[in-house]
Amino acid sequence: MKKTILMFLALVVSNFVNADWIMIENLEADGVYYQITLGSSRNYAKVIHPMEYAEFQGLIDTDYGDIPIEGYVGDIVISPMIEYEGSEIPVTEIGNGAFRHERYFGGGDWWESVSSVSIPNSVTTIGDEVFADCPCLTTIEIPSSVVQMGKGVFQNCSYLNSVTLPSGISRLGERTFSGCGRLTTIIIPEQVMEIDDEAFLGCRSLTKVVVPNSVMKIHEEAFSGCSALQSVVLSSKLSEIGSMAFYGCDKLKEITALGKRPAAIQEDVFPNRSIQTLFVPVGCTSAYEAADYWWQFKEILETGAQPGIKEGDVNGDGKVNVTDIMRIVNIILNTNNP
């Protein structure tokens, strides 16, 4: 019995010693608020909204002091490392709603929001709605270190016109750019495999979209309401396009499908297909003519349909190189340069 008790106590002590422990602290550095997590496996910091900091400090409905609970304003620089009790803690995350416009936190001047944010290469994760509703944000670069982005990251950033996305993300979340009415161009990274619901809903200044070959699914209403969109190039690996993905794209005239097998679509994906031209790979016309809803395009043409053409040889010179890429770009831009 005594031996059993001692073995039990030893097991308890062992589990306690090896257990993952966590301690959370909040602090401010150079006008930016951080939450620091200290654990047995790793220490890290994430950027938080000033209101979240105030709540943690128990200052809600009391004297806030110098804490800008209305949110960040102007140009923000995030530090890659935060000093805490003599140690350097890496900043690896930007928390949910960290820079979101303060009208959702209790009123204030609509035009006071962040205008620029410098993000260090230490950051790997960006949470939900981090920059949502920031009317002063016009351009931003997300470093290549970021591998995960949440939902609605730039939702309703009405003056955002330029974004550099990281190459390592595997999907564009729901409503990522929804309501970004002044976004004129977007380069979707080559590693993205899915474009989620309403990712570009209402991006009424986008004129062209190239969906990289890594993308296998475009979800519902992904590009719905992109009223200036004129041309789209679809991934060669695309297997499914969700309902109303291109609904309300009334200026869309040309769709280039790079897949040899038509993706599964519904009737409302391309509602204006009776007046649109579809370009398909060489030798794939019959496959698209036999596929549900694809056959209803005004015309189906093969891209670079010359004798002996190689796959990817858009200009028919017998080679697949940068000239073919430029030719595709020219087609998208509606130019006639060879």
Write the layout of secondary structure elements.
Layout (H helix, E strand, L loop, with lengths): L1 H17 L3 E8 L2 E8 L3 E6 L1 H7 L17 E4 L3 E4 L2 E8 L19 E5 L6 E2 L12 E3 L6 E2 L12 E3 L6 E2 L21 E2 L12 E3 L6 E2 L12 E4 L5 E2 L12 E4 L19 E4 L4 H5 L9 E4 L19 H11 L6
Parallel strand pairs: 3-6, 4-7, 6-8, 8-10, 9-11, 12-13, 13-15, 14-16, 15-17, 16-18, 18-19, 19-20
Antiparallel strand pairs: 1-2, 2-3, 5-6
Task: Return the string of H and E elements.
Answer: HEEEHEEEEEEEEEEEEEEEEHEH
Q: Note poorly predicted spans.
A: 1-19, 104-108, 305-310
How many DSSP-defined strands? 20
Instruction: Compute the separation of the termini in Å.
Output: 89 Å
How would a textbook summarize the main sheet?
A: 7 strands, mixed
Mean pLDDT: 84
The helix content, as a percent range, equals 10-25%
Coarse shape: elongated
* Tally of DSSP helical segments: 4
Strand content: 15-25%
Secondary-structure class = alpha/beta
Overall radius of gyration: 25 Å
